[in-house]
Design goal:
Layout: E1 3-8, H1 14-28, E2 33-37, H2 43-57, E3 70-73, H3 75-83, H4 96-109, H5 126-139, H6 148-151, H7 158-180, H8 184-196, E4 200-207, H9 215-227, E5 228-236, H10 254-266, E6 276-278, H11 288-300, E7 314-323, H12 326-342, E8 351-355, H13 358-371, E9 376-378, H14 388-401, H15 406-414, H16 433-458, H17 463-466, H18 483-517, H19 521-534, H20 537-550, H21 554-578, H22 585-597, E10 611-615, E11 624-630, H23 649-657, H24 669-673, H25 676-684, E12 687-696, E13 698-699, E14 702-703, H26 708-716, E15 718-723, H27 724-733, H28 740-753, H29 765-775, H30 780-790, H31 801-808, E16 811-815, H32 816-824, H33 826-834, H34 847-867, H35 877-891, H36 904-930, E17 934-942, E18 950-953, E19 959-974, E20 977-986, H37 994-998, H38 1004-1020, E21 1024-1033, H39 1041-1046, H40 1051-1057, E22 1061-1065, H41 1068-1074, E23 1081-1082, E24 1089-1090, E25 1102-1103, H42 1105-1127, H43 1151-1154, H44 1173-1185
Helix pairs in contact: 1-2, 3-8, 4-5, 4-7, 4-21, 4-22, 8-9, 12-13, 14-15, 14-22, 15-16, 16-18, 18-19, 20-21, 28-30, 32-33, 32-42, 34-35, 34-36, 38-42, 42-44
């Protein structure tokens, strides 16, 4: 029986030393055996390495069997080996989430005893942090009696109260564990007792790479020392580290020294006794430079006594490189690795990448590894918290909690882990089950997309899901003439949406009702599991597992099984602990998230030829021939540790001061900080042939400095330093590309840079490379794609006439606003009315919806006036309000305006709209009292499907049909016929601009005026003379006190605010007939004014009657021209600069499609140039006569 602590440096020949001792022991007797104890996470690699080494030493035939006598275990596996037939292994053990469940139950049951912690249990993360504290107490050998002094006190400082409550929770926690469970710590205690009763004198034990030991592991070591033939404990340290502190600087091996001191104290062995031995033999695989670096770091970091004769020298095995940014650093690191492997000197398994922030860098590192086609093993285990099963469970709870909210329903359905497997019954039976499920999934996705479109458009949520009312879907009126062709498709989509709705509600609603009635958690969990089966979750798991396996993604396939098994275990533990108690959704969800956030997927150890990527903090990596350490900036290594966890450093030190020496807790923040030099020591010795250290200068705009540890090395030695950015540029300029991706990426940049350069100004390599790629069969396609992207012009290709006719038909059916859209930007018109591209409609009140509400009200009001034979000029306020109320009540049932009744907020919006209508209508009635005209008709429809058809022949086979709706036609009958005016209601202020008419972007007013003239003329068979086309702004004006003081009865002020705009005839006699009371000055109703000399004021919008006729003719000329251009296939991207704020192709819904960029030479704005009135009229006349190009 013997025990020794073997101290080794990182460059010591530790493995060969251990292998030699093992081989010698096994050679001594055929009964001898060896136990090699290592941490769980390196058991596999350590076993492979040790079997190989020992096997070589036992090559003689007579000893070949002996290697089978060596067993590699972790402490947990050792317990399983010795206790495999013990009754303790038959008792259940709790997972981490099971422990959290027990703590949750304790906090609930004993909340009266907990002053500080009684309300914390529902806070996210608290239970998990508390479980860490409880585990810390257990692993440190803390007993409930250690808290007795706090239990007995009556008054406390906060620190005392917190420790008391920790003690109370710990006491009940241990009681729960003793009742039914056995944890790994309990097994280690039983193992220690078992080993103590055994004769293991033929067993030699080696304990290696244990940086932390808990109380139970110390007990096992104690038992092994007493029962085995020999025990050796290997740790990284030097004998100098155990000398009195004052002879050394800060201790590099303080952590390991404390570990050994604790171990020797447990074994009751004095540190001064000869159990500490230092292994002096060096590992000759290390480059001499690394031995030098190790010696320097040990001497300057408190690991060795300082040598007085240290001098600077060149270090060739280490290289320091700085890069511009993180992406470049990783790219160049991978390029170097690729070059090393391609040289034939190294394999990927000889190389590793170390990083302090591997988890954060994974999102950048992983895709770049794939791009550089480097096989890799990422030493990170993902948590299960992002698996869609969590999304399903959260959504099920949220749907009930938030009463069928849209986002919760979509989260459930979009998980693709429920409902869709149920649809396979609707498909034809197939031989392959996976094919059937895949078809069901494809069908489900289509159905869900269409259902979501309907839900968004109609705003269905809440009671809309569970009521018996059938869903409806109001079609978007992009093109009235195409509505009928879409109705059949929409009906089918609505039917499918209804089916999906009924399927969801029929399964979830009974579940919620039953859940509300259950009395125990066991009943609730049973219901939940049945629901998951009923909605197809188990089938979805099987499908996704099999799908991943069939495409060769074994890791994902295994993960499906791991998640489902973990979930089942969680349910079992939850029922076991809370089974007979009332069910609490919130607690279940909290513990569910806690469980999956802290449960990791199992990782298969790497045995292939792969590059290894590992975190520096793990300290579980072994030296490789070549190591790359990235991201070595100040703040990363060394890193300032911050206090975290539920128990503070102050509380930890206070508790320790009251404990016996056999008790211990986790290191404090300061103690953790002292490990930083040791981590860099591991980095310096992580390679045997070449070590590459690097950093990047900028991160999210911030400038970074090198690690102070790196600077110490750079200041001491002559080390090769490189500018990574310059190195990359030189490599590319010389054509040294390690992957095709690098080649094409660089070529793309160069082609763009030299795009418009002369050939003599372009370096020869960038002329030769494109030529070579063009000739190479393997890369021709990629090359042409690359060139196309460089020289691509963002120009819409004009449609062939045949294709345009096929797209639009030979008969165009357009509204004037659609024609205006074409002139504003042909490409937007092509997308919206040619391809029918449109945004997914959402249930919200749009400007068009408000406008329709206004128009409908005004139309019904005029109709009511006519029905009741009322004089519109003498109607009083009471009658007006009565008629409006009837109209508003009738519109409440109109499907077009149901959105206004959907929510209290929309009801309030409706009241605001109605108030706006009252204000505007009141002003309109005041205007009519000033005018002699009478509203003849409102909402006058014209078009191909109305009595008034407007057809413009384009050629022998093609025509343009114009449609529209005139808001109001006013008439004034005279002896010679009628004076006609139209009023167009607008929700925003409008003015007539002849320049805009010239460009075709303000056609509606003149078109409507012309059509109205024809309608009235046909109706009465009399001469009709237009007096004006007018805009009325529908809004709620604001007034100031000055206005109100100057106008006692308020009418004149209101009329001025609502003054009509547009264009009028310049025949003053006609205008005075229209507004009889007008004499001079400014009209308060119409857009004109007359000076004292009888001339019109400059602000007057008046035109000669012949000119108005010309403008109407020109509007139709522009309509016809647009029709011809559309059917010719014109679709260029040509927005107006003055309208770019509202242009769909610039800042609107089509900007992502058009990719319009005014900095591109090929993308240009149109500009609205202005011309004097007479020039405009002459230009238009010439256009109509065909004289103007």
């Amino acid at each position: 029986m013997s025990f020794e602590v073997i101290l080794t440096k990182e460059t010591s020949a530790k493995v060969s030393q251990i292998a030699t001792k093992i081989a010698d022991w096994l050679k001594q007797s055929s009964n001898n055996q060896v136990i090699y104890l290592v941490p769980d996470h390196i058991k596999f690699s350590a076993e492979l390495e040790m079997i190989q080494q020992v096997g070589q030493l036992l090559q003689q035939p007579k000893n070949s069997y002996a290697v089978t006598k060596m067993q590699v275990y972790s402490f947990k596996r050792l317990a399983w080996y010795f206790l495999r037939d013990h009754a303790a292994l038959q008792r259940p053990s709790l997972s981490k989430v099971g422990i959290c469940m027990i703590l949750q139950k304790i906090l609930t049951e004993y909340q009266d005893e907990l002053v500080l912690f009684n309300k914390e249990s529902r806070h996210k993360g608290f239970i998990e942090r508390l479980s860490v504290v409880m585990q810390e107490f257990r692993l440190g050998g803390i007993e409930v009696e250690d808290f007795s002094q706090w239990f007995e006190q009556d008054s406390y400082e906060e620190i005392d109260q917190r420790l008391k409550e920790f003690g109370i929770i710990y006491k009940h926690y241990l009681e729960y564990l003793k009742q039914d469970f056995v944890q790994s710590e309990d097994l280690l205690k039983i193992l220690a007792e078992e080993i103590s009763s055994m004769d293991l004198s033929n067993t030699y034990v080696v304990i290696d790479q244990s940086y932390h030991l808990n109380a139970m592991e110390l007990e096992v070591i104690d038992a092994l020392v007493k029962s085995c033939g020999g025990v050796e404990f290997y740790t990284t340290a030097t004998t100098d580290a155990f000398k009195p502190k004052e002879t050394l600087e800060a201790g590099l091996f303080d952590s390991n020294r404390q570990l050994i001191s604790r171990l020797l104290n447990w074994l009751m062995i004095d540190e001064t006794s000869p159990v500490l031995k230092e292994l002096k033999e060096e590992n000759n695989t290390f480059h001499p430079d690394f031995l030098e670096l190790e010696q320097y770091w040990l001497e300057t970091s408190g690991g060795l006594e300082t040598s007085s004769n240290r001098t600077s020298r060149k270090i060739e095995a280490l290289q320091w490189t700085t890069y511009e940014d993180e992406r470049q650093e990783i790219q160049e690191t991978l390029a170097t690795i690729k070059t090393l492997v391609d040289s034939g000197k190294y394999r990927y398994q000889d190389i590793q990448i170390l990083s302090r922030n591997l988890e954060e860098q994974q999102t950048l590192l992983q895709p770049l590894l794939e791009t550089y086609q480097i096989p890799y093993f990422m030493d990170l285990s993902d948590t299960m918290e992002h698996h869609p099963l969590i999304q399903v469970l959260d959504a099920i709870f949220a749907i009930q909690k938030h009463f069928w909210r849209y986002h919760d329903i979509m989260n459930l359905l979009r998980s693709e882990y429920c409902f869709w497997p149920l649809n396979r019954a609707n498909l034809e039976n197939k031989d392959q089950e996976e094919d059937t499920l895949r078809d069901a999934l494809i069908q489900y996705r289509q159905q869900l997309d269409e259902t979501e479109t309907i839900i968004l458009a109609q705003g269905y949520e809440g009671k809309d899901w569970i009521s018996s009312k059938t869903w409806n879907y109001q079609l978007e009126k992009i093109d009235e003439d195409s509505l009928s062709s879409r109705e059949a498709l929409v009906h089918q989509q609505l039917t499918q949406a209804q089916e999906l709705r009924e399927q969801i509600v029929s399964l979830l609603e009974p579940f919620y009702k039953k859940l509300d009635k259950v009395e125990t958690t066991k009943e609730a969990i049973t219901l939940l599991y049945q629901l998951l089966e009923n909605i197809g979750v188990t089938d979805a798991f099987l499908y996704w597992r099999n799908h991943a396996a069939n495409i060769g993604d074994i890791q994902t396939a295994r993960r499906q099984d791991q998640v489902w098994n973990e979930f089942l275990k969680l349910l079992e533990e939850y029922v076991y602990i809370f089974g007979d108690e009332p069910f609490d959704w919130e607690i279940f969800q909290l513990l569910l998230h806690t469980g999956f956030e802290h449960t990791h997927y199992n990782m298969a150890p790497s045995t292939l030829d792969q590059l290894t990527c590992t975190g520096i903090d793990s300290v579980r990596y072994s030296p490789k021939k070549v190591t790359f350490v990235i991201g070595l900036s100040q703040g990363v290594l060394p890193r300032m540790e911050e206090e975290s966890g539920l128990i503070t450093d102050e509380e930890r030190e206070y508790l320790l001061s009251k404990l016996d020496s056999g008790r211990f807790l986790h290191p404090t923040t300061i103690q953790k900080q002292s490990v930083e030099p040791f981590l860099f020591y591991k980095v310096l010795t992580s390679a045997t042939e070449k070590l590459y250290l690097s950093m990047h200068h900028t991160d999210k705009g911030a400038k970074l400095k090198p690690s102070s540890f790196v600077e110490r090395i750079l200041n001491q030695y002559e080390i090769t330093t490189q500018d990574g950015n310059q190195k990359q540029q030189e490599r590319f300029e010389q054509g040294e590309f390690v992957t095709i991706h690098e080649l094409f990426t660089t070529l793309l940049q160069k082609l763009r840079y030299y795009k418009f350069s002369k050939e003599e100004d372009i370096p020869s390599i960038w002329i030769a490379l494109p030529h070579l790629l063009r000739q190479d069969r393997d890369f021709q396609q990629e090359y042409h794609t690359l060139v196309d992207s460089v020289f691509h012009l963002n120009i819409a290709k004009q449609l062939p006439k045949e294709l345009a006719a096929e797209l639009y038909g030979n008969h165009l059916y357009l509204s004037t606003s659609q024609v205006e859209t074409f002139y504003k930007d042909p490409f937007s018109h092509f997308l919206q009315y040619g391809l029918n591209v449109r945004e997914r409609r959402e249930f919200e009140l749009t400007a068009a919806g408000s406008g329709e509400y206004f128009h409908e009200t005004f139309d019904q009001f005029i109709r009511k006036i006519h029905e009741l034979n009322l004089d519109i000029r003498s109607i009083d306020a009471t009658t007006t309000e009565k008629i409006l109320k009837e109209i508003f009540d009738s519109m409440n049932d109109d499907a077009r305006f149901q959105i206004l009744n959907a929510t209290p907020r929309m009801n309030w919006t409706k009241l605001l709209l109605q108030d706006t209508i009252r204000q505007t209508l009141s002003a309109s009635l005041l205007q009519l009292q000033q005018l002699q005209v009478t509203p003849w008709k409102t909402e006058v429809v014209f078009g191909a499907k109305s009595d008034q058809k407007i057809e413009l022949p384009l050629n022998d086979t093609q025509s343009l049909f114009i449609r529209g709706k005139i808001d109001r036609i006013d008439l004034l009958e005279t002896e010679n016929g009628y004076h006609l005016g139209i009023v167009d209601y607008k929700s925003s202020a409008q003015k007539f601009d002849i320049n805009r008419l010239r460009y075709g972007i303000q056609l509606q007013l003149l078109t409507y005026l012309s059509v109205a003239r024809n309608i009235v003329s046909e109706q009465f068979n009399k001469a009709v003379t237009p007096y004006g086309g007018l805009y009325m702004h529908v809004f709620q004006p604001s007034f100031n006190a000055k206005d109100l003081k100057a106008d006692a009865d308020f009418e004149e002020t209101r009329l001025k605010k609502y003054k009509l705009s547009g264009l009028l005839t310049n025949d003053l006699g006609v205008l005075q007939q229209v507004q009889p009371d007008f004499e001079a000055g400014d009209s308060i109703v119409l857009p004109f004014g007359v000076k004292k000399d009888g001339e019109y004021k400059a602000s007057s919008q008046v035109y000669a009657p012949d000119d108005i006729n010309l403008l109407m003719d020109f509007a139709f000329y522009q309509l016809k021209t647009a029709g011809e251009r559309i059917l010719n296939g014109e679709n260029q991207i040509a927005p107006f600069d003055e309208l770019k704020e509202y242009a769909d192709s610039v800042n609107g819904k089509f900007s992502a499609i058009s990719m319009f960029d005014a900095t591109n030479p090929e993308n240009n704005y149109q500009f609205l140039t202005k011309m004097p009135l007479q020039e405009n009229l002459t230009w238009m006349r010439n256009k109509i006569d065909g004289k103007e190009e």
